[in-house]
Amino acid sequence: MSNHKVSALLVVMTVLYIFSSLPVYAVESSPSNPKRLNIGPYTNKFSNLQDNLKNNFQDRIARRCEIITNNIDNRINAYNNKKNAHLKRYENLKNLVSKIIANLEEKGYEVTELKTALNELDTKIKKYASDYDAFIDALKNTQNYACGESEGAFLNALEASKTALQTVLQDTRDIHSYYIDVIKKAVSDLRDQKTL
Fold it and tell me: Which one of 48, 53, 58, 75 is most buried, counting C-beta atoms within 10 A?
């Protein structure tokens, strides 16, 4: 045999000899055993530890719920500020196009196409505002669910608000592309037109 096998066999035999030669002590179940009388404090400590862990868990859930609620409130406020900024920008855009129409009309240009485009732009802006309100309502709807108790319903409401946000973003892209592709093109075409 190799040296490693011999030494391993020697160690195993030594351990077996030591454990077989130790005396075995039996524990009495009589109340005279002092170790048996001291189990009560350990049981109380264990139940206290269980209660503390349960309370800590509930406290963490409450803190997490408070953080989630605050984050949703902050996002709603941020989205409302963005909505107001966008609406102000769109209102300025409508005013600018109205001034251009008035100036071109005074000079004798045919601006019916541009007026139609302005009405369509106004319709798109109103759709944007209503879709944005629906998005904010969907986001506020997530606060209606009890935190930690209705995970599935909360996640569904959050998903619905994300879908509503995608609609709002699409409305923003539509307004931008409509301005670039239709209104700017109509103004450019009017430059080439001769006055009536």
Answer: 75
